Amino acid sequence: MQETQQAVRLESSPKIPDGLKTMMQKQGYHFVGRHSAIKTCNYTEDSMRLEGATCYKHQFYGIKSWRCMQSTPAIGCNLACSFCWRIIPEEIGINWNELNALGNWDEPDSIVEGLIAEQRRLVSGFKGREGTDLQRWKEANDPAHVALSLTGEPMFYPLMSKLLDAFHRRRISTFLVTNGTMVGALKKLTVMPTQLYVSIQAPNEEVYNTIARAKTLNAWQNFHGFLEVFATLKTRRVFRLTLVKGVNMVDAKGYASLIAKGRPQYVEVKGFAFVGGARSEDRHLSYEQMPRKEEVIEFANRIAKESGYIVADYHEHSKVVLLCADEVSAQRRIINFEK
Hints:
The protein has 339 residues and is α/β, with parallel strands linked by helices.
């Protein structure tokens, strides 16, 4: 298949290379099995205090930030987006690819149980922290949500439907984030996540090729095929835009065209953050390319005007504007995810 062809020669294995694993561990990643990982989100930590900050998903969709796991069943990615704050293996001299390592993947139930156990270990130290609310801390030990978005491309994991089912059987809602190139994997899904995100890197092919730096052939074409399938799915669908000044913060009409094709109920328009891997000299980005609050809101309004979507909310700390397809979507955005 075209979407699995590699532009460079990479080692194919689900086992994380030791050098990459060591570097990620230093950055706070904890590993489960051979290829899954979890890391405590800052909002999970903060929200265990009553006065602490909560994430945009808490504000937009009603989840409890302190009950959410930030994780992934796959570390590798077939894109190398310049704005990504994660480690890109090739930038540290590691050529590695999880794709097509069929037959060597961990079982879904073992991944879920491992992630829950590791999450409990990660939050255990917050019980004695000054300001921690003990009720929230107890709830944090009983996760109700999982964001499959920590790093990499989660759709690499070939047993995604069974993984989603394993979470749902434990009454854990799922927020799956994909870069929108794995159309074949999307077509195979028989279990839908609670909410399916697709990252929208650019409004047109020229900008996409500049910012996404795809490792696979025909990524832009696969992306369009993905959106066609995405539009038909019976689940909550979301576009996520990360805006970088001077790069992809252009062509609101182009973004509106993609919205028309994918027909998400929600669009999150977020400002780029110059942190982590994005600070690498190889990315050629700068602090000045982080858009100000006013710029994010202004561009989100331009997209809303072009697409017919409505501006429904804004999360101050994350600089994220929420657009909704219509008033009905806006009214239904906060739903009861709780066990």
